[in-house]
């Protein structure tokens, strides 16, 4: 969160009362102001007592500790943002005694670390999602992905679908899916989902996606269509069983979804779970659930 002396704010810390308290203190509204306009960084802790935890909406016994940096180097922040926009993973280290900042590119995310001298944090480029097909389901998935923090690209060579696209903030491409996937250069912060139901389009995208580092590769379709798709990719495109093991389908978690909006919720739930490294229980798997309908009659 960036906070100016006039009370202007960009971003957030907790999405609640803590922002209000910081603004109150920073703009001189409190006699017990802990923020000063300058000097070395300092740590502010909220939720130490049960009363504070209740007042600030924190779970009982929980705490939130914030590092405050005063008058940070604007050029260094510009360089950090530029690196992130170019897809570079960055580590930012702040010396706690004087506020000196060191920034460097890194190859893989590292956990936040703090000791008596330094706080180190990883800043990564935003997660990206490539959707094949510009139909109604794609619009719901794209909308949910945008407010979940993904940069979303949609590929559909069919002009009749592209012309009906209505979601703002999405890059829409008309090239063939395999070319788009290649140009997309999927990395470990990318996911690719085929949603056209057209093998001529979905298979081309999946063929390239399964050869990439994308953290999630999936395709819409029934259990039967998913099985046939796997056979097709193996027999006609040379995809190995090991590569096919990365293909998710039927996609989503089992919530009994029927409408496009509900299916999109199901798909995004699975994508976010995989992104966050969560292993979902077997009974959340669509194939498993539909194979045992009596277990979910309630």
UniProtKB/TrEMBL annotation:
<dbReference type="InterPro" id="IPR052698">
    <property type="entry name" value="MoCofactor_Util/Proc"/>
</dbReference>
<protein>
    <recommendedName>
        <fullName>XdhC Rossmann domain-containing protein</fullName>
    </recommendedName>
</protein>
<dbReference type="InterPro" id="IPR027051">
    <property type="entry name" value="XdhC_Rossmann_dom"/>
</dbReference>
<dbReference type="Pfam" id="PF13478">
    <property type="entry name" value="XdhC_C"/>
</dbReference>
<feature type="domain" description="XdhC Rossmann">
    <location>
        <begin position="129"/>
        <end position="271"/>
    </location>
</feature>
């Amino acid at each position: 969160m960036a906070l100016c002396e006039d009370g202007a704010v960009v971003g957030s810390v907790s999405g609640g009362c803590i922002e209000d308290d910081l603004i109150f203190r920073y703009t001189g509204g409190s006699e017990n102001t802990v923020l000063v306009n300058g000097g070395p960084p300092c740590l502010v802790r909220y939720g130490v007592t049960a009363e504070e935890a209740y007042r600030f909406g924190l779970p009982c016994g929980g705490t939130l500790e914030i590092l405050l940096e005063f008058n940070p180097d604007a050029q260094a922040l510009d360089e950090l943002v530029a690196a992130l926009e170019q897809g570079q993973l960055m580590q930012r280290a702040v010396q706690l005694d004087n506020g000196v900042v060191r920034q460097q590119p890194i190859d893989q995310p590292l956990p936040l670390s703090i000791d008596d001298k330094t706080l180190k944090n990883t800043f990564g480029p935003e997660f990206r999602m490539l959707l094949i097909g510009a139909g109604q389901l794609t619009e719901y998935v794209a909308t949910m992905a945008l407010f979940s923090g993904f940069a979303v690209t949609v590929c559909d060579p069919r002009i009749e679908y592209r012309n009906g696209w209505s979601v703002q903030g999405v890059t829409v491409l008309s090239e063939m899916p395999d070319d788009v996937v290649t140009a997309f250069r999927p990395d470990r912060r990318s996911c690719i989902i085929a949603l056209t139901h057209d093998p001529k389009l979905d298979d081309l995208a999946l063929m390239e996606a399964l050869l990439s580092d994308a953290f999630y590769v999936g395709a819409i379709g029934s259990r039967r269509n998913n099985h046939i798709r796997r056979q097709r990719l193996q027999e006609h495109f040379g995809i190995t069983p090991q590569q096919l093991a990365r293909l998710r389908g039927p996609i989503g978690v089992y919530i009994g979804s029927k409408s496009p909006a509900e299916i999109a919720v199901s798909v995004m739930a699975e994508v976010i779970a995989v992104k966050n490294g969560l292993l979902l229980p077997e009974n959340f798997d669509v194939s498993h659930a539909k194979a045992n309908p009596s277990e979910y009659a309630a």
